[in-house]
């Protein structure tokens, strides 16, 4: 999957994870994501919604072109701080 395809894939999943769009029940990534976030909301809606945006930050970082040009531990560490360090 290319970075562009990954961004499109994530863009499709994000509203599903928010609960704003119903998933296609024949697309496993869609219905698993939807069911997981709905189950989390059932347990603790506030907490589930609190971790939603940091999850999106991580998903966006996974399709960032910067990933393709990391050379060495220092730049890698900076990159990781920007994606998971903010969550």
How is this structure best described in words?
70% of the residues lie in helices and 0% in strands. The protein has 87 residues and is mainly alpha-helical. Helix 1 (3-18) packs across helix 2. The longest helix is centred in the middle third of the chain and has 34 residues, at 28-61. It is flat, with a radius of gyration of 15 Å. The two termini are 25 Å apart. The model has no long low-confidence stretch (mean pLDDT 89).
Distance between the termini: 25 Å
Query: What share of the residues does DSSP label as strand, in percent?
Result: under 5%
* Alpha-carbon Rg, integer: 15 Å
Work out the helix count: 3
Fraction of helical residues: over 70%
Query: Biggest β-sheet, characterized?
Result: none
Q: SSE order, as H and E?
A: HHH
Overall mean confidence score, pLDDT: 89
Name the shape in a single word.
flat
User: Which spans have pLDDT < 50 for at least 5 consecutive residues?
Assistant: none
**Overall strand count:** 0
Query: Which structural class is indicated by helix and strand composition?
Result: mainly alpha
Write the layout of secondary structure elements.
Blueprint: H1 3-18, H2 28-61, H3 73-83
Helix pairs in contact: 1-2
Offer a quick outline of the entry.
This protein is 70% helix and 0% strand. It is mostly helical. The protein has helices spanning 3-18, 28-61, 73-83.
Please name the defining characteristics of this protein:
87 residues
């Amino acid at each position: 999957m290319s970075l562009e395809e990954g961004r499109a894939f994530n863009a499709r999943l994000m509203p599903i994870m928010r609960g704003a769009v119903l998933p296609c029940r024949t697309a496993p990534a869609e219905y698993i994501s939807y069911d997981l976030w709905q189950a989390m909301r059932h347990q603790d809606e506030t907490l589930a919604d609190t971790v939603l945006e940091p999850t999106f930050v991580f998903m966006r970082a996974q399709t960032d072109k910067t990933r393709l040009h990391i050379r060495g531990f220092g730049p890698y560490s900076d990159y990781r701080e920007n994606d998971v360090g903010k969550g």
